[in-house]
Amino acid sequence: MSSQQIAVVGLGETGLSCVNFLLKQGKQVTVFDTRQSPPGQDKLSSGVKLIKGPLSGELLAQFDLLIASPGIALATPALQFAAVKGREIIGDIELFARQLKEPAYAHAKLVTITGSNGKSTVTSLLGEMAAAAKVKVAVGGNIGVPALDLLAPEVDLYVLELSSFQLETTSSLNADIATILNVSEDHMDRYDSYQHYIAAKQRIYKQSKMALFNRDDKLTYPEKHSPNNVSFGFDQGCYGLIKDADGEVFLAEEDVPVLAVRALKLSGKHNWMNALAAFALGKAVGLSEAAMLTTLQHYGGLAHRCEFVAQIDNVRWINDSKATNVGATQAALAGLSETITGDVHVILGGAGKGADFSELSAVLHEVHGAIICFGADGDKIAKQNKRAQLVENLDQAVAKIYLMAKPGDLVILSPACASLDMYKNFMARGDHFKSLVKALAAGKADEVI
Questions:
Q1: Domain range for residue 418?
Q2: Residue 186 within a domain
Q3: Active site residue 20
Q4: Does the predicted model carry a pTM greater than 0.90?
């Protein structure tokens, strides 16, 4: 039994995975949580002490090592007090990184992915590419399974999505390749400045042998140039896009076409970039190009994030219920009409949370198909475009567009609103949309997933 005293600060799924990992290592663990009923407490081993309530810096400073959950800011006074007293503060990802250096795991490759948007899609897509290439892969981190629960000697590739919160307490990942997909203002309630948030993201490059950055977003550029680094973007060069003589757009590597974008099941220009990023990451760790391209043609996206639902009479139906704010809908619709042969039809509405819907005006101007609005703030969205129509519910919206859509068109639910006016959550809204579409598709769909 180790004599090292370790405190896990914050329970929940991540904290519980830390506790279970440390117990297997023979460590002595005490858990701290400010909540009176922290999630996961019923799963704690009986020998683990749980201290609830406000954090005490003096008490935490008595421990040799503090492992803080991502939700606990390093600026928390109790953690600051312990840090001043010389106590080391890390997170579960740093614990994972240190374990990965042990002989049983050192053979495995590691890819780390962060960004303000798209990181879950790229992480899961790369995981599916690896599985298709018959590589023993483990995917998780900020999505799905906590990193420590992924550790297994038989794994050959780890693919981790990492948040800025996780990166704050991580210093020794030594990834084979890391990427910052994009950076936009987020989590400003946690950071004292935008620069502080960007700096947290940039930590990922300092712990990697190779960087993949976004040529169209200078905030993703590594601070130090390296000839090993690669990039992706909408232009040509390295990983990018090219057009042939007929104007068809292709994903390309060093200006050599690898796949026509029309072959992607993922919809939208932003997903062209996600596809390029995943492809570049896969090439960096030696995945089969054939397996990756096959995956790109079959990957329908994460649930409720520009998720392919069905193709009916050559009309694609997309579920983007996760778009609960104006920015997410802007990203989904921007340039979308350029990616298909027909028109885009969009369904919007719900609880707007005081949003400024005038910011949707420009992307709605690009929509040449139907603009159907519903829900508590549907009327406010409808004022942003003179062609917009109001309906009472999602059932009516789907039925109306089904009668209008023609071959080559695309229909997307991208609400720009929360769902709580009519649904339990955005997942329930998305599931309702999918059920309506699949009912239409019964017996006549070209393809349904």
A1: 307-441
A2: yes
A3: no
A4: no
